[in-house]
Amino acid sequence: MARLHVAISLIAFSLGISGFLMPDLESVHLYVSVSGSDQNSGRDVGHALKTIQAAISRLSHPDVTGKNVFIELMQGYHDLTSTVNIRHSDARKVTIRANGNSEVHVTGGKRLPTSLFKHVTDSGILRHLQNEARNKVVAARLSDAGLSHLWDLSDYGFYKDRTAPMEIFYNGAPLRMARWPNEGQGYINIASLVDGKTGSSFTFSGDRASHWSQESDLWAHGFWYWSWADRSIKVKSITASNNTITLAHPPPFGLRTGHFHYGQNYQYSYQDQGGYFRIINALSELDEPGEYYIDRTSGILYMWPPSQTEGLDQHDVIYASDLAHCFNLDHTSNVIFEGFTLEACRHYGISVRYGQNITVQRMEVRNTGSYGISCLNCLNVNITGCDVHHGDGGIKVSGGIRATLTPSRISVDNNIIHSFSRETAVGSNAISADGVGIYMAHNELHTGQYTAIRWSGNDHVMEYNHVHHLCQNATDCGALHTGRDWTGRGCVVRYNHVHHVLRLHPGADVRGVMLDDQYSSVNIYSNVFYNNDVHVNIGGGRDNIIQNNVFYEAAKSSMQVDSRGVPHSSNEQPLQKKLHAVPYTSALWAKRYPKLAVIDSNAPDEPRGNEISRNIFYNSAAPDFVGSYTNTHWFNITMNHQAAGPTDFFDPAQADFRPRCSLSKFAQSIHFPDPVPLHDVGPRGGIGPMYKGHVAGSRRDVITTKRDVPAPCTTHAPSALTPITSYLPDGSHANTVKNTPNQGCWFDVEICPNDHGFTSGLQRDVDGEKHLNTGINESACLDRVPYMVTHCGSQSKFSVIYGPTGAMTLGGFGCYFAQYGCPKHGSYHVGFIRDKWAEQHQNAAHDENACLSRALAEWRYCGSDETFPYTSIYLPTGRRKTAAGGCWIYVTKCPADPTVNIPHDLFFDAWGATNVGSDRSSTACFQRADDFWFRCGRHTDAPVTAFYRPEANSRTVP
User: Fold this and answer.
1) Is the separation of the CB atoms in 937 and 892 below 8 Å?
2) Whether the Cβ atoms of residue 444 and residue 470 lie closer than 8 Å to each other
3) CB neighbour list of residue 291: distance below 8 Å, 6 or more residues apart
4) N- to C-terminal Cα separation, the chain
5) Please, which residues have CB within 8 angstroms of residue 685's CB and are 6 or more apart in sequence?
6) What is the mean pLDDT of residues 487-506?
7) By Cβ atoms counted within 10 A, which residue in 1, 94, 183, 912 is the most buried?
8) What is the mean pLDDT of residues 731-753?
9) Stated pTM of the model
10) Which of 798, 802, 781 is nearest to 790 (CA)?
11) Worst-scoring range by mean pLDDT, 14-28, 446-460, 731-745, 894-908?
12) 433 touches 463 (CB < 8 A)
């Protein structure tokens, strides 16, 4: 029902944008043909105009004003000689489209006829080329194609919008500026720093410096210090004798030595990131098909064609980019782009500022220097059914008014955006979204060096997207990524498939969704994550909800959480600046985001209010659901369930993660919704211009061989092996220390100085059984220690035993161990010993936490041997903690499942140890508390506790 409501809302939303609720005006058609003339009227095919700009200028003609205008582009390549500027703000619609769905290309470049290219005969150039390239490279003088300005290289990378130099495209695909290492071979490590981290000189290993020292316009692109910050920088000089490079200026974050090793970078840590680069724009490195070099002094293009046959074919289409922007719309309304290919623009393909009622549909936008489509400070925009690829960024949108939370009504839906970070890695995203109320749905976003969706602002919805193969050339990255803002609230990530986001380079982990640097209040639910490094990250933020997701096969862990803001305790300045830039305490904001309104008085640096619940997960290599940090005060991690294996899902190879087998019962008990199927995500219907015959997106690296019948369930019978129980009886086995009847609550008194009437030996807790039910409640019985200490005095010594299970504890004064021995250090003493060291050095006789922490420390000191458990007992309260092997479950009662009625309330989780690794993972162990509580009927008066003894830790549900 919820999804139906969403679908109906989106239909209304889409109609509101694309229809514009415009008046029914008379229409005029203006025809533009590559063989036309701007002196023509353009009113019919026989009198077509030649340029789009001429058609735009006709909008003010008396017989066109007041009418909707269709600018009909006839078949062919329309090479723009200048940017098409549109400033149109009246009520009529202007549609620029391919006439009759014919094949139309609008380019910001010039075509280079194949007849211009000749084999290289210049001996000086031939000496500069590698041997294998000398009879492969062809050359053309660009001025012969009418190109007089060759557009120099400039810095790009790390959120710096790239205006590309002149680039070359061959049959619709970009060629690569000649470089080393070659495509797919990685980077060169910096070997040493000549003038320190903040300098600009470094050395490297290899034998190519002698070639590079002869280059006249050499550049380097690298991850100079961080693997999340790339930058291209001109090379000032090379000293071949000692392999030293000096850059024109230091990189923004400095330099460091590198540890890049192609194909095995997964093993390198955060500290080993950065410090690697590649050389670009080097004639001497024009050594493989698909590379080119432009000599900006002579004006000659050198190219090794990528075709499989020798030489060029007369039908090859070769373009050089020339214009920065192809279409520029400023304060413009009611414009539609439809059905053609736009390409070879050095900056943006379509650039809109302060636009309203803009539609871009069924377009192919490719081979741009920066974003294919940019619409900033816009309202009522729909970008749909487009194929955007091989740019430095896909689609950039912003709009809405944050102060009033007025939505932008921008929709980016049903698009394929891929190969979108062709040169720039960090900051050239598939979708960049900023403002209020941007809707991003049913897109396929894949194959990028860094992030697919980078968002900021409020109330955005990201749903039904197919997102995969991201973060391919950088680390500390998220496929969906945002950060450093407490105020960007109201955003939703739901019903997406996110997969194959893996760390391939040295550095920090990469994630499916990354909430970086204390970003807060995102609702992430009902997504399917699989085959990622980490599925979701909460980087110190607050009030995030992670619920009802499938997390399958994380290389590291399903989730990461941390408290990175707490050490600063200074309310980090960027966060405070953003907080006070919005009216977060106003009536409107306080009603919409009540937790934000009181953040100043609610320890803003602490990651409070995070809810991680009702997710299902399976990891064969990384058993933990959440990494090592699990502060329950800040992160409520509850009712998440680990599958026993791949067969607990219907068909993971088909991305069909419907629960089955042992997982299905848990899913039913919490009403886990069916995961969104793969065929429901990504584009619906055709994509790109009609002439290309495009259909919805790919399913690569997901679908293998479809199973006709699901694989058999493969849970195993529990192992009969049980770790040694504690010497101090805890109810898991018969009490061999103290003999008591099997009913009632008992005191075994050694010393009771304040009451000589308390004789030594066993005495029944008659008063407690009568008034506190200690005879039928183990916890109530053992909790009688403080009463006895008060009654008998601080120097008393006694035991309390619960008859039905034999569970017992000690009471009196001091901190004690119950031990089996310490084999690593040659001791095999069995029994109770006083922890004198802890009493002397940690005040453990008076500090319960200090005393109880000693069990784990001593067990590890003695070798962490499962056959030699250690229990610490704090005698003033009788509290105890055991460090040993295994996951142990304490069930007080189980009304809904009589099969759980075992001889003792505390038992080893043999099934969990065999099937989900509960004896090896605290996450798996603590999840079993949820399992048993659900299995036993979810009664609040029947809690279940899971004890993970290898960490001497526990969790109680509810």
Assistant:
1) no
2) no
3) 175, 176, 177, 178, 179, 285, 303, 304
4) 30
5) 385, 414, 696
6) 96
7) 912
8) 91
9) 0.90
10) 798
11) 14-28
12) no
